[in-house]
């Protein structure tokens, strides 16, 4: 097979959880550009359908959004049946969905106390684990089984460089806040992303005899106009000296879900500008 054909997703149907998010949309664009049909699962039905329609029009493929609560097995099964009825087959699953907690302000002051390990709310722990880790497990269980029955499929879990190393909490430091209310990267982020790497290895060996490959990708931070002090601190930890551009992971996603990586499974591809090498 010619090299360019190894990267083709012509006729492939790819389910993306959290499809209406920043990375979800970028995954969908990459898949569509290579001829595949991105299927967006998200709790935001309006946004996922809007993205799917625009992608379909731009690339001439068949993309669609489905409102789905991936923490609910029944909801996933209902969506699975709708997808199979429309597309006939699922070839690819990208577990991309995650909670993205924001540090809110109270009386125009940052409310950071809840991000500290000592104060981290159990409800936040449960919600983050439910979406980021349990949701990936359920989608892999339900949609992965469908692919295994067809003896063909790829599962890609979107992890993070912070699933490989611990967050450097110094880059979040706010000199205007007292020590007991400093902003922190929440513990659930590390736990979820580390868990996804473990889930990847389990899936890679579990269905290997049924034609299923499973890999994960650990991207570094994407620049989205964050506070400049934060950006400067983070970039000082990265050998390439900058954060990623929002389109810089597209090629890696296509590699991991296409035949170009046909002899790769159970692996975690780190793309972080070199941060984890220091």
Structural notes for this entry:
This protein has 278 residues and is of the alpha/beta class. It has one domain (3-277): NAD(P)-binding Rossmann-like Domain (Rossmann fold, 3-Layer(aba) Sandwich), CATH 3.40.50.720. The protein contains eight helices and nine strands. The chain has helices at residues 3-6, 22-33, 45-59, 73-87, 122-149, 187-206, 228-235, 250-257; strands at 13-17, 37-42, 64-67, 92-95, 105-106, 109-110, 153-158, 212-219, 268-271. The strands form two sheets. It has a seven-stranded parallel β-sheet with strand order 3-2-1-4-7-8-9, sandwiched between helices. The chain has a two-stranded antiparallel sheet with strand order 5-6. β2 (37-42), α3 (45-59) and β3 form a beta-alpha-beta unit. The longest helix is centred in the middle third of the chain and has 28 residues, at 122-149. The radius of gyration is 19 Å and the shape is globular. The relative contact order is 0.14.
Summed up:
The chain has 278 residues and is an alpha/beta fold.
Largest sheet: 7 strands, parallel
CATH topology call: Rossmann fold
Strand content: 5-15%
Ranges where pLDDT stays below 50 over 5 or more residues in a row are 103-109
* CA distance, first residue to last residue: 39 Å
Cα shape: globular
Corresponding CATH superfamily: NAD(P)-binding Rossmann-like Domain
Query: Got a strand count?
Result: 9
Instruction: Work out the helicity level.
Output: 25-40%
What count of domains describes the coordinates? 1
Secondary-structure blueprint of this entry?
Blueprint: H1 3-6, E1 13-17, H2 22-33, E2 37-42, H3 45-59, E3 64-67, H4 73-87, E4 92-95, E5 105-106, E6 109-110, H5 122-149, E7 153-158, H6 187-206, E8 212-219, H7 228-235, H8 250-257, E9 268-271
Parallel strand pairs: 1-2, 1-4, 2-3, 4-7, 7-8, 8-9
Antiparallel strand pairs: 5-6
């Amino acid at each position: 097979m010619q090299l360019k054909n190894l990267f083709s997703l012509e006729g492939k149907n790819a389910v993306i959880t959290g499809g209406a998010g920043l990375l979800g949309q970028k995954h969908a664009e990459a898949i569509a550009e290579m001829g595949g049909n991105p299927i967006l699962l998200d709790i935001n039905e309006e946004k996922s359908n809007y993205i799917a329609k625009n992608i379909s029009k731009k690339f001439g493929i068949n993309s669609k959004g489905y409102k789905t609560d991936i923490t609910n097995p029944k909801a996933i099964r209902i969506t699975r049946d709708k997808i199979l009825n429309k597309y006939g087959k699922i070839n690819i699953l990208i577990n991309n969905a995650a909670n993205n907690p924001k540090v809110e302000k109270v009386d125009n002051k940052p409310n950071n106390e809840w991000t500290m390990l000592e104060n981290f709310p159990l409800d936040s722990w449960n919600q983050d684990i439910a979406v980021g880790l349990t949701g990936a497990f359920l989608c892999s269980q339900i949609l992965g089984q469908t692919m295994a029955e067809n003896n063909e499929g790829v599962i890609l879990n979107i992890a993070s460089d912070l699933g490989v190393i611990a967050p450097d909490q110094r880059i979040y430091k706010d000199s205007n806040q007292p020590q007991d209310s400093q902003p922190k990267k929440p513990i659930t982020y590390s736990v979820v992303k580390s868990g996804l790497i473990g889930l990847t290895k389990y899936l890679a060996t579990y269905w290997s005899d049924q034609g299923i490959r499973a890999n994960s990708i650990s991207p570094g931070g994407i620049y989205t106009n964050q506070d400049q002090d934060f950006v400067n601190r983070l970039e000082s930890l990265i050998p390439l000296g900058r954060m990623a551009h929002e389109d810089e992971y597209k090629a890696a996603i296509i590699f991991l879900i296409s035949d170009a990586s046909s002899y790769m499974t159970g692996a975690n591809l780190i793309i972080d500008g070199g941060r984890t090498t220091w």
